[in-house]
TrEMBL record:
<feature type="disulfide bond">
    <location>
        <begin position="71"/>
        <end position="77"/>
    </location>
</feature>
<dbReference type="GO" id="GO:0042834">
    <property type="term" value="F:peptidoglycan binding"/>
</dbReference>
<dbReference type="GO" id="GO:0045087">
    <property type="term" value="P:innate immune response"/>
</dbReference>
<keyword id="KW-0399">Innate immunity</keyword>
<dbReference type="Pfam" id="PF01510">
    <property type="entry name" value="Amidase_2"/>
</dbReference>
<dbReference type="InterPro" id="IPR015510">
    <property type="entry name" value="PGRP"/>
</dbReference>
<dbReference type="GO" id="GO:0008745">
    <property type="term" value="F:N-acetylmuramoyl-L-alanine amidase activity"/>
</dbReference>
<keyword id="KW-0391">Immunity</keyword>
<dbReference type="InterPro" id="IPR036505">
    <property type="entry name" value="Amidase/PGRP_sf"/>
</dbReference>
<feature type="domain" description="N-acetylmuramoyl-L-alanine amidase">
    <location>
        <begin position="48"/>
        <end position="183"/>
    </location>
</feature>
<feature type="signal peptide">
    <location>
        <begin position="1"/>
        <end position="28"/>
    </location>
</feature>
<protein>
    <recommendedName>
        <fullName>Peptidoglycan-recognition protein</fullName>
    </recommendedName>
</protein>
<feature type="disulfide bond">
    <location>
        <begin position="34"/>
        <end position="157"/>
    </location>
</feature>
<dbReference type="InterPro" id="IPR006619">
    <property type="entry name" value="PGRP_domain_met/bac"/>
</dbReference>
<feature type="domain" description="Peptidoglycan recognition protein family">
    <location>
        <begin position="35"/>
        <end position="177"/>
    </location>
</feature>
<comment type="similarity">
    <text>Belongs to the N-acetylmuramoyl-L-alanine amidase 2 family.</text>
</comment>
<dbReference type="GO" id="GO:0009253">
    <property type="term" value="P:peptidoglycan catabolic process"/>
</dbReference>
């Protein structure tokens, strides 16, 4: 993983250094800085059978992984997101895909149920949280830098739009329910993100 660090050099020249870690920056952003979001109609979402709206701004963010194969290219990612929606609706009997957003290794963000709608990702927290799932299994390796940067932009975007409380708290799904999600590698990483709350433990 990498994050970008700038260091002054000689007469006002700036040198770009690569450092062997990556920190997701979720400081305030303008809505214009929101990441590219692939809308539901673009990935072929089926209609929700029921919609429940959240009270904004939302207090919590829960990070998941989908435990599927990863993807970079949009056609493949669309198929994966559609298959997740199908499983959630047909097998779990949920009204829609459970996550608010899904992030692919290529860096695109896919709209699940989107902002200000109640998902089905973390029992006891659905009505007061945004569920963000990285597409893939991140037990042993991290999402790409592109995916992690997209997550940072999405979180900043949520604050700027008034969807997320500026003082929101961020958790890995395993802190709130009996699951291995978001995978060991990703869970270790999010503990260095802004707003991570280590106080919750099952």
């Amino acid at each position: 993983m990498f994050w970008l660090k700038f260091k002054p050099f000689l007469a006002g020249v700036v040198v770009l250094l690569l450092v062997s870690s990556f920190t997701v920056d979720v400081s305030a952003a303008d809505p214009a800085d929101c990441p590219k979001i692939i809308k539901r109609e673009q990935w072929g979402a089926l209609k929700s059978t029921n919609v429940t709206y959240q009270v904004m701004p939302v207090q919590y963010v829960v990070i998941h992984h989908t435990a599927t194969v990863t993807c970079d290219e949009m056609p493949i990612c669309k198929n994966i997101v559609r298959s997740i929606q199908d499983a959630h609706q047909s097998m779990n009997k949920w009204s829609d895909i459970g996550y608010n957003f899904l992030i692919a290794n290529g860096g695109n963000v896919y709209e699940g149920i989107g902002w200000h709608r109640v998902g089905a990702h973390t029992r006891g927290y659905n009505s007061k949280s945004i569920g963000i799932a990285f597409i893939g299994d991140f037990s042993e390796e991290l999402p790409t830098v592109k995916a992690l940067r997209a997550a940072g932009k999405l979180l900043r975007c949520g604050v700027a739009l008034g969807e997320l409380d500026p003082e929101y708290m961020l958790y890995g799904a395993r802190q709130l329910s009996a699951t291995a999600s978001p995978g060991d590698a990703l869970y270790a990483d999010i503990q260095d993100w802004d707003h991570f709350d280590a106080s919750k433990r099952l």
